[in-house]
Amino acid sequence: VFGTARSTTEAAHIKLPTLELPEFHGDFLKWRSFYDQFKAAVGDSDLPDVQKLSYLRGSCKGEAGRAIEGLPLTAANYTEALGVLKRRFGDPATLIGLYAERLVSLDSAAEGDIKGYRELLDSFETHHRELKTLIDELESATATPAAPPSTPSASATATGTTVNDLILAPILSLKLPCSVKMEWRRRTDAKDRFNLTNLLDFAKREAETMESVGFNQAPVEKSQPPAQAARASSRCRPTAATAALTVRAGRDQPKPRQPCGICDDPAHRPKACPTLKGMTPETKECELNRIELN
Prior knowledge:
With 294 residues, the chain is mainly α. Helices cover 60% and strands 0% of the residues.
């Protein structure tokens, strides 16, 4: 019993590391993360509101700090300051547009670039997760109790594909490497092709396969011992006599005759081409000038 009590007392006096408050500089896409962290560390605590406002002002920098710097440091202004920041940086409709824009502007993954492919999937999934949360929150906030249930065309089809999938799945598909895109089309039919969840799962499995086989790793050439490399180099180096014979053979070899630049017939030169006979002098001169320039 005494051992248990002593252990409980020691656990109660364990000193946890100091928690640093997050900073917010006015980036719209970082507002939600900042607010959740600040709320957990300060907003939900038993501190007086005037002290909470002091911490809030200390955490807001740049554009965010300027948005609330005019509010006096009073208890009543803590709620007011949070409202200013939420209206300025946390408007769901604005954030939905920004996250959708980020999804569209993601760089496509080049064929064989597994690192770029992984970055595409990670970024897409992060932005899509935030976008989906915002849309769900906005729909919940605007829904009324008397509203009729959503129809399949507005929410989900019989195949589980939502309207958001119909928009976002083609965006992701366009940014995938060509080989992954072709394999996805081979494995799915038209009704399942726009299921974003299935497409993401498939794309991640393809990335794991590429990583497991070292898809974009260049083959490593085996190095030869110095003595062996020197002997191989000397064997491959041509002698002076061999070089002279090679040059002489090149001089004696007849050069292939260039075909006529007008009709591609190698039997005559452009000025003797029969095609020129039916041309006016001006057209003939222009045609010959074109051949000379090429």
